[in-house]
Structure formats: C-alpha cells, structure tokens
Backbone:
C-alpha cells in the first residue's frame, strides 16, 4: 500500500512567483548572465520556467513535454526544520537537510541516474521562501520503477539527502555578539526567494554560490563536483560494508583434534 511519501502534491497546489516583481537592480534586469530562448523564460525577467538536468549535470532546454507527468519533489520534503506531518518533511530527521535547494536536488537526481527537470519559479504553498521544485522520471509509463534499487519517492529522497548532506553550507564560528550564527542567506535560499533582499539577490546572482540562481546555474562547477564526490564516497562506503558482511557470513573451518 502506498505511503504518504509516494504521493505527489497536486499540480494546482504550487505557487508561481510571477506575481513577485523582479528587482530593477538585479543582474537579470541589467541583461547580465546567460541568454536563454524566450520560450524558456518565465514572467520574472531572466528566470527560466524549466531546465533539464543534462547528463553532464549542466542545465538546458527540456527535450520533451513528458516531464510534466513525472514525480514532483520540493525542498520541503527533506527540510530538517519542518515537521514530519501535514504534507511537510518526508524523510527521517536524521537524514534531512538544514538548507535544501531544489537546484541541488535536481542535480542529485541526475547523479543517481534519473532524468530530472528543475522548475525555479514553482513553490510549495507551505514553503514560500524557498522556491523551486524538481520533476523526476522515477517510474516508467507502466508504473514500474526505472531503478529497481530506488522503487519509490521515499527511497529517492533518502538517497538525495545522503548525496547533499556533505555539501551543506556551514555556519561561521559563534561569537559573543552572535552565539547562533547561520550560513550566508544566499547559501540557504535560492536567489529568487521572496525572503532575500534586492541587494542580497544581486550578490547571489553575480557570485553564484550554492544558491546563486543564474550565476552558478550553467556549467555545473564545484556544486556538481561535490555531489559526484559524495556519490563515489557513498558507493565506496557501501562496498566496504558488503565486504565486511561477507566476511562475517563466510563459514569458518573447524579443526577437530583427534585423540590418539
């Protein structure tokens, strides 16, 4: 029987940021950043509607329209700050991330071998400050999982957390004036977040970082390298565990000493 983790939120649940006017001083408004075809751009200046995570982890035009029927993932589903009920977090708190970003989730899906489309402007109604969602090709048309090892959304979300956990932004050292510091806001939220001020938005789009929308969106960079490294480390860890288990299960030879 399907669990709550296996269901996607209805398509009409998402919020579109088209009603939020872009800052006039933003890099996109000034014409900076990569040029995109007009049919890819959403109502917000310079913010694409949907981007396909390609095999080399770069982002480009979706190759077809079938992706609109794929499974939906929101950062909310793996956010450690959210409760695990009422359509909130869908993974164990020990696995969840403090600062999940949809763009990173899309690239993690690609690293796990799935086709994925990143929609920067789509927002879960309970997570307005962290826009972006992912459409992932988890199952084939007949409903069978495309990867037998990742049969449902719950397992996929757990794998995404395992890949992205090592590259989560770290908070600076606490001080007397700030005993509980947070990472810079442009590392915690995407650049098109309504919670980010115009000045910080400019900084994020120019500087890239983990959450830089257009500054770091094209060409992968350190973000993708870190995800790939986390994937290799996880595979190596799993291999060592299997070898250790095989040694434990291997029958031991028993030598019986005969009496003369």
Residues:
């Amino acid at each position: 029987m399907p669990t709550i983790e296996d269901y996607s939120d209805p398509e009409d649940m998402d919020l579109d940021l088209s009603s939020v006017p872009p800052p006039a001083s933003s890099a996109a408004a000034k014409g900076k950043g990569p040029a995109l075809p007009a049919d890819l751009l959403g109502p917000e200046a310079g913010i694409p509607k949907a981007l396909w995570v390609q095999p080399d982890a770069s982002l480009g035009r979706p190759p077809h329209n079938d992706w609109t029927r794929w499974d939906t993932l929101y950062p909310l589903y793996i956010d450690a700050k959210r409760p695990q009920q009422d359509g909130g977090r869908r993974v164990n708190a020990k696995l969840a991330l403090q600062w999940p970003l949809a763009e990173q989730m899309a690239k993690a899906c690609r690293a796990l071998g799935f086709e994925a489309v990143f929609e920067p402007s789509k927002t879960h109604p309970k997570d307005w400050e962290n826009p972006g969602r992912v459409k992932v090709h988890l199952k084939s048309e007949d409903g069978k999982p495309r990867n037998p090892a990742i049969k449902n959304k719950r397992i996929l979300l757990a794998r995404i957390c395992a890949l992205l956990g090592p590259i989560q932004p770290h908070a600076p050292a606490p001080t007397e004036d700030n005993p509980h510091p947070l990472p810079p806001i442009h590392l915690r939220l995407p650049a098109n977040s309504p919670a980010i001020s115009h000045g910080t938005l400019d900084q994020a789009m120019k500087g890239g970082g983990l959450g830089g929308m257009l500054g770091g969106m094209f060409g992968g960079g350190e973000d993708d390298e870190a995800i790939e490294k986390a994937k290799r480390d996880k595979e190596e860890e799993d291999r060592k565990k299997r070898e250790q288990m095989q040694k434990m299960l291997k029958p031991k030879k028993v030598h019986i000493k005969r009496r003369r």
